Amino acid sequence: MTTRLTFKKIITGASFALALVLVQGCATAPATSTEAVRQIDPLEPFNRAVFKFNDGLDQAVIKPVAVAYTEVTPTMVRKGVTNFFGNINDIWSLVNNLLQAKGVAATDTLFRVSVNTFWGIGGLFDVASEMQIPKHSADFGMTLGYYGMASGPYLVLPLLGPSTIRDAFGRAVDSQGDVAGNLNDVALRNSLTGVRVVNLRSRFLDAGDALEQAALDKYSFTRDIYLQRRKSLIGREQPVVEERFDLPAPATTSPAAQ
């Protein structure tokens, strides 16, 4: 498949971003709870305004479409769509695992992409998971954090949602490594983007409803969960298990830690 992406563009962008780590100062020491909130979220008025806009758009457009998609699309088809985009994401995870010098994770990811692409019919079937090949999700924001770059202030991006200054820059590089998002065929590229967004939102319908009912301040709850999760992923060696909110949860005999 012909794309606008070139290996030189990825390496150039990655090298520039990693160079920023050399001039990035260490994160400040923990402060009191009130001071800590001000430090991690100094842009709160702006962030809340963007969060309100994103939430309104989601409630008015994205969520209804995701609900309709879930109702009319068989579970097997939705699972295949999730697997397809997961396989595409694994390609960029491979690059980031290599940048982080994680040999085992990179090897596992290479095997996952190879197996799922050839034996899983382009990734529609997750054969690699059936073969117990672990998944190591990684993005460029994680790569920057792995090399010591502080996250910077919390930032809510229009349409894209929760982020930080570091992760926002990482997303810009990630966009250059997205195979589906760099297709020359505009119609196909836009169609894949739309399906990806709707499918992803459909997987979080139950979680979103629970958040609506449980969170006294949805903005603060979302911010804290995002920051805690991102912090836990930096330098993490164990596989990152992709949750399937559109499928029944498997039975377990012990508590699962993410």
UniProtKB/TrEMBL annotation:
PANTHER family: INTERMEMBRANE PHOSPHOLIPID TRANSPORT SYSTEM LIPOPROTEIN MLAA, LIPOPROTEIN VACJ-RELATED. It comes from Polaromonas vacuolata. PROSITE patterns: PROKAR_LIPOPROTEIN (PS51257). It comes from the Bacteria. Keywords: Lipoprotein, Signal. This is Putative phospholipid-binding lipoprotein MlaA. It holds the Pfam family MlaA. Residues 1-29 form the signal peptide. GO terms for cellular component: membrane. Belongs to the MlaA family. GO terms for biological process: intermembrane phospholipid transfer.
